[in-house]
Amino acid sequence: MIRSKRSAIKPLRVKLFAMAREIAGGKMEIELEFERKSIKITDIKERILQVYPQMKCIPFVLAINYKIVAEKQKRHDHVSTSNMYDSEITADDEIALLPPISGG
Amino acid sequence: MIGITSRTIDISKMMNDCRDESAGATVFFSGSVRDHNEKGKVIGIYYEAYVNMAKHTLVEIENEVLRKWDVKKFVAIHRIGEIKVNEISVAVCVSTEHRQDAFEACKYTIDSIKARTPIWKKELSESGNDTWKNGILPFHIERTLDNENK
Q1: DSSP letter (8 states) at residue B90
Q2: Number of CB pairs, chain A paired with chain B, less than 8 A apart
Q3: Are residues B137 and A61, on separate chains, in Cβ contact within 8 Å?
Q4: Do residues B133 and A104 make contact, with C-beta atoms less than 8 angstroms apart?
Q5: pLDDT tens for residues B73-132?
Q6: Among B56, B145, B15, which residue's Cα sits nearest to residue A96?
Q7: What ipTM, to 2 d.p.?
Q8: Within-domain flag for B17
Q9: CATH at B103
């Protein structure tokens, strides 16, 4: 019964790039299963680190629907373009894990 | 106009696209692949982007520039994929009525691209020991630059 309930909830999909993708064995995207439909950013980060402990080696931020979500304690030097830090994220949101960027 | 492309950036076309009868100044910036880094010889760079978000971010930057300066024409293009030494990876062209605005708007654009556009570079070495370049966590610099200008 519990199993069928869980499978009815769509997993969150997280896009991976650069060194983060390599840590995940080349996967462009990972799926994270939760028992609830709405998940907080902190839960997503925690789950990623549980599944891929090596991600602790690289700092990263999450982007939700193309908006960077900065951690509260870092807001003084990383100005967030999103106020979603406390929001509930669902499988309909586009989630991406962004390691340190180096364009240009 | 903004773009993310896997093709060679056509700088003549960019300059042409920035021509405007009311503009007295055009500033062009390009970033290209160096043949070395702190560890030694580099034979090229592989650029990877979160393309949809990168385009979204470039549009945001363009809108900020249009709001802050009286810009006549604006073009910013970043190339992705494998790029050889001496080839252009990013280019910005801005035309305005007077030169100061063009210089400032062009600097703001390239600084913003580097600070918050989700693009990553892997430096390719002769030895095959290719490494992702140490970068910075993306952040929004508009407020920082506003403070600097006060």
Answers
A1: E
A2: 91
A3: yes
A4: no
A5: 999 999 999 999 999 999 999 999 999 999 999 999 999 999 999 999 999 998 888 999
A6: B56
A7: 0.87
A8: yes
A9: 3.90.1170.40
